[in-house]
Specification:
By secondary structure, the protein is an alpha+beta fold. The chain contains seven helices and 13 strands. The strands form four sheets. A five-stranded antiparallel β-sheet has the order 8-7-6-10-9, with helices on one face. Strands 3-11-12-13 form a four-stranded antiparallel β-sheet, with helices on one face. α2 packs antiparallel against α3 and α4 packs across α5. The termini are far apart.
């Protein structure tokens, strides 16, 4: 019973919408996916096929099998992002993550099954046997790819930490002094529906993504992320009255009051917060301004 309750809480715990699903990161992921599938199929030929049944040369077949999942994933996640934005759904859970990934694998398996008619001459192409085979292969390959992404992220994060941690400053943990009567800041976005309010002390950081910005704001003790149609420059201009809400990188703006740890050297910093494992870079061009604001009493 205890395990069931724990599992339910884990799968339903609210979390930020994954940054990997944002357009710029998504392009990188599907590109890596295409290359991995293509190289694996072409060099190792993991699935047994009868060469005499092939309508196309093997190189073309590898390209099709690698391109199809990439297009499906990119289209599905892009559409999911538009639906979430249109319905103004900001929450994300591990349960939603697994359900959407499982749905993706199923769509890829069904699409690969339908692709058989283009690639092979086998009269049993559309049999139940091959339907099961394609769906099974989609799930197996998908799980391997997900494990690869997890391993790569862990390795990358540990490597970056080692390279940048020339000196590390940990700050004493203390609560942020808030002015409970402070008026919320109104931010005008490029479109009216994306206009929003927040209290200055509640902003953790903002991250640019093309013509959009994802803002990370504390609400009722939980960190929420919201994607807004506004450039980081326009957001910065509207926050000029709050010097501690500081542009620190071409793609980031942060709340200096919320910084709990910084690591790095004269080439740049990596900023850590208590509220999230995400870290924000301070590029070399912004170091002097960051140091100046950071050292001021707040």
């Amino acid at each position: 019973m205890l395990f069931i309750n724990f599992s339910t809480q884990l799968f339903n715990r609210k979390m930020d919408y994954p940054a990997r699903y944002q357009s710029k990161n998504l392009v990188k992921i599907v590109s890596v996916q295409f290359l991995l599938i293509f190289v694996t199929l072409y060099l190792f030929k993991p699935f047994t096929v009868n060469v005499s049944e092939q309508r196309l040369n093997y190189l073309t077949i590898c390209c099709l099998h690698a391109l199809l999942p990439a297009l499906i994933i990119f289209s599905y996640i892009t559409m999911l992002g538009h639906v979430r934005k249109r319905l103004q759904i900001n929450d994300w859970t591990l349960k939603k993550e697994f359900l959407n990934v499982a749905m993706l694998f199923l769509i890829i398996g069904l699409s690969s099954f339908l692709l058989r008619g283009l690639i092979y001459t086998n009269p049993d192409n559309f049999s139940w046997r091959y339907l099961w085979t394609e769906i099974r292969n989609a799930y197996l390959a998908g799980i391997v790819f997900c494990l690869y992404l997890i391993f790569a992220r862990v390795y990358f994060n540990s490597t970056v930490h080692k390279l940048t941690d020339h000196h590390s400053i940990s700050l004493p943990s203390q609560s942020i002094k808030k002015d409970l009567n402070a008026s919320p800041i109104f931010i005008k976005a490029h479109v009216k529906i994306d206009n929003f309010y927040f209290k200055a002390d509640d902003l953790l950081f903002a991250k640019a993504d093309g013509n959009y910005v994802t803002v990370y704001i504390l609400k009722d003790g939980f960190l929420k992320s919201e994607l807004k149609r506004i450039s980081l420059k326009q957001l910065e201009i509207q926050l000029v009255a709050y010097p501690y809400l500081l542009r620190c990188h071409r793609a980031y703006l942060l709340n200096v009051k919320r910084v709990t740890k910084l690591s790095g050297n004269s080439q740049g910093y990596l900023i850590s917060f208590d509220e999230t494992e995400d870290r924000v870079p301070v590029s070399r061009a912004y170091l002097s301004l960051f140091d100046k604001i950071y050292k001021q009493p707040m």
